[in-house]
Model the fold of this input.
Amino acid sequence: MSTQDADTQNLTLVQAVRDGLYGEMERNEDVVVMGEDVGKNGGVFRATQGLHEEFGDDRVIDTPLAEAGIVGTAIGMAAYGLRPVPEMQFSGFMYPAFDQIVSHAARLRNRSRGRYNCPLTVRAPYGGGIRAPEHHSESKESFYVHEAGLKVVVPSTPRETKGLLTAAIRDPDPVIFLEPKLIYRSFREEVPDDPYTVELGEAKTRREGSDVSVFTWGAMTRPTVEAAEELSEEGIDAEVIDLRTLSPMDTETIVESFKKTGRAAVVHEAPKTGGLAGEIIATIQEEVLLYQEAPITRVTGFDVPYPLYALEDYYLPEPARIKDGIREAVEF
Done:
């Protein structure tokens, strides 16, 4: 849907989440929000603020502190025609619900041979950078990308957050919607008032370039674009691709960008080993190996437990380290 010339509000990313939820709940009475403190309290980050007053107890449900129960209940609701949107307070709290997500939500359509589907959107604030304690800062998106039957979405701007969340809620299959909380309130953008969708499975070129392709997503998008802009002063013209949807991944955009540049770097805050950079690199090797001019670099978190406050800024990729990784690919 076109969003040109529509009435807009200047929203932060977390406000865009709330706006997307409100729009779909108003449009479709089958949409139900549930989770810990999402009702009267409006959620730990206030992403559901005001929804309880507007839609009531039956559609904005405060649950016990029991992630497996929250998601398990939501799966049953989805199988019988509702469109539940359970919130996990932090993505690091999702692990008790992992069995429900991968053993049931992801497999329901296949298990029932199409008799049931599971229009479920599991929202979770994810990623680091906010000086939070243990279990609040992990980036484990690859866990969910590995599971067939799940879509995995990570937005990076307020405008696209609303459109991607709307598309996720309307999707007939389960979606893991990971919201980078580092940028929940870090900047604003004009967001159309009316509901609209941003298609799942499509990457976005954030900066055109001809020397090297840089693939990233979520909270790493802004520092990656910043690094690319600074490198342009050194004569390095970097193209920045924001994947937005990690599963299904937009391999066509990855391949076409790499064919143009022949060099690449991947930036993500998850640990290096087992991170999605490896999958992106393997895709490039399989599809466009003969275009490759240099080893592909990875700028990532480290293979250690997520650190507490003193080392958090060192752990997360930032423009200086991203520039080093891009230079390494270009100067080989």
